[in-house]
Amino acid sequence: MNRERVKISQDVAAAVAQEMRNPVFGIASAAQLLRYRVTDDPVMERNIGRIVREAERLNALITALLDFGRPAPIQLAPADPDLVWADVLARHRGVLESKAVLVRHTPAEPRCRCNLDTEQFAQACSNLLINAVEAAPEGTDLSIVSSGEPDGSWTCRLHNDGALIAPEILSRAFDPLVTTKPGHAGMGLAAAHRIIGEHGGSISLTSTADDGTSVTIVLSAADLP
Predict the structure, then answer these.
(1) What is the number of domains present in the chain?
(2) Please, are residues 145 and 108 in contact by the beta-carbon 8 Å criterion?
(3) Torsion sign (Cα): 56, 174, 97, 87
(4) Contact indicator for 24, 59 with CB cutoff of 8 Å
(5) Domain range holding 52?
(6) Residues 85 and 57 in one domain
(7) Which long-range contacts (CB under 8 A, 24 or more apart) does 32-38 make?
């Protein structure tokens, strides 16, 4: 049932993006043309600039919808998910430093190997990290703690001490276009949910006043020859 729900969401996201693409392109092109024609009216210039910025924001939403609705085929191979996390943290070092956020990453010991599409899994991890950074109060820490289970599966918990997520948002957090942040597309968690699901894994979100907010990922062990 969950797979069917995700498939329906993907189809709707792709259809909406396709319908939006041409009108938004037309609006952006017309605004750019007007910008070159109108050079002596500051009010007109200011409003044209606003149209262009809003068109760019819509284009970013269209791209996110298409990425969710028409993703590249997943290619799985045995890999260490904690190595992917380490690479993602290195890529986002600038963002972390700009918000004075420290991330403590504790890999599983012994290390685990799961069937991964490392590029798409890295995208899921990036989405989760960005979401956590945006939710975390400035100057606070995030933790990523991984562990190996007796059956060889890998469990990872990304935790932040941000504000409590309202129950009505928490229950729909992995749905497309659900967000509490103005100006955000609300596609990051939905895309991460789709990617983890296509890896045969699970992802869950909890948020309590006492313990903060955590995302937990579980992936099965890689098939050994």
Answers:
(1) 2
(2) no
(3) negative
(4) yes
(5) 2-69
(6) no
(7) none
pTM, whole model, 2 decimals? 0.72
User: Could you tell me what percentage of the chain is helix, strand and coil, using 3-state DSSP and rounding each to the nearest 5?
Assistant: 50, 20, 30
Assign 29 a pLDDT band (cuts: 50, 70, 90).
confident
Is it the case that residue 107 has pLDDT exceeding 90?
yes
The reply to whether 17 and 109 lie within a common domain is no
Q: Quote the pLDDT of residue 158.
A: 95
Kindly state the average pLDDT of the residues 17-36: 78
CA-based nearest residue to 63, from 29, 27, 18, 26 = 18
Same domain, 64 and 85: no
Percentage of residues in the chain with pLDDT exceeding 70? 88
**What per-residue confidence (pLDDT) applies to 15?**
74
Task: Answer yes or no: is 224 within a domain.
Answer: no
8 A C-beta contact, residue 115 and residue 200: yes
